[in-house]
Amino acid sequence: MIQGKRVVVVLPAYNAAKTLEKTHREIPGEIVDDIILVDDASRDDAVFQARRLGIRHIIIHASNRGYGGNQKSCYAKALEVGADIVVMLHPDYQYTPRLIPAMASVISSGLYDVALGSRILGTGALRGGMPLYKYVANRALTLVQNQLLGQKLSEYHTGYRAFSKRVLETLPLEENDDDFVFDNEMLTQAIHFGFQIAEITCPTVYGPEASSISFQRSVRYGMGVLRTSLAYRLEVWGLKKFAFLDPQGRKLRVRPAPALPELPPLPAGAQGGLPAGLESLLRPAPANAGAERVEAAESSNAAELAQSR
């Protein structure tokens, strides 16, 4: 908690087992009240590692719903557990968790509703291993976006972000894409609805386990970014209406948070891989089965509780 505001960190995970522990270790427990991990149908044992680390809220997507779909589950759950400030942190350790206090403080001050950890402020992007073509594309897209959106941000493409509760309750996030362009749609919405955005210099690490998209998907992402910015300009000029910029657009539907009982302890000495019996624990069971154990996302709006046998 910071300045009386409840801080929740959300981890949108996909094949993050190798870096999750390192990321989790540096999350400052003195101010973070809760951690939520949403696993987007990973092929590794990220869920097992999350349980081993004691992460209390684990949402498992039965099928891959994309980066944007993952975030929708993250934010809906964060609101369910009473977050006032939500910090999105990638569990691949590309961004340092040690800046969470700074990100949260920016929001708790009441001066800003959105905080971005910028890789471009300073000189950390290329030194941290960002591929040159991505750096050039980042700068070019940001230049165009600033012109179309009327802003002066150093970048729009960071995955390190913090939001106030009011932002997540106001934006029509369910109108957004389920893939990577979700991030840009969300920032464009924040600008359109008048929320103030701050930036903090953030180092980055492009290690072998860092999440990254292919060149082809990067091109597709860039085109989506340009479409989003053009849509904003057309909306502002009154030439066309877009659902993702409509105040009446679909917002996250949040259910009251149910009490989540303690999960049974993991087998002694479990170090990696799914031990015998754990897969059945993570598998949704019939509605009349025993005590609730692990959360499972049934839709992008709500996290349902699965029950163990």
Present the secondary structure layout:
Elements: E1 7-13, H1 17-25, E2 34-39, H2 46-52, E3 57-61, H3 66-80, E4 85-88, H4 100-108, E5 114-118, H5 124-127, H6 132-149, E6 161-164, H7 165-170, H8 182-192, E7 197-201, H9 215-236, H10 278-282, E8 292-297, E9 303-307
Parallel strand pairs: 1-2, 1-4, 2-3, 3-8, 5-7
Antiparallel strand pairs: 4-6, 5-6, 8-9
Helix pairs in contact: 1-2, 6-9, 8-9
Run of helices and strands: EHEHEHEHEHHEHHEHHEE
How many structurally independent domains? 1
Name the CATH class. Alpha Beta
Number of helices: 10
- Full CATH superfamily name: Spore Coat Polysaccharide Biosynthesis Protein SpsA, Chain A
Distance between the termini: 36 Å
- Mean of residue pLDDT? 84
- Radius of gyration, in Å, reads 19 Å
Provide the CATH topology: Spore Coat Polysaccharide Biosynthesis Protein SpsA, Chain A
Shape: globular
Q: What strand line-up does the widest sheet have? A: 7-5-6-4-1-2-3-8-9
Q: How is the biggest beta sheet arranged?
A: 9 strands, mixed
Helix content: 25-40%
Structural class designation: alpha/beta
* Unreliable spans: 259-263, 272-294, 297-309
| Name given to the CATH architecture | Alpha-Beta Complex
Q: Tally of extended strands?
A: 9
Percent strand equals 15-25%
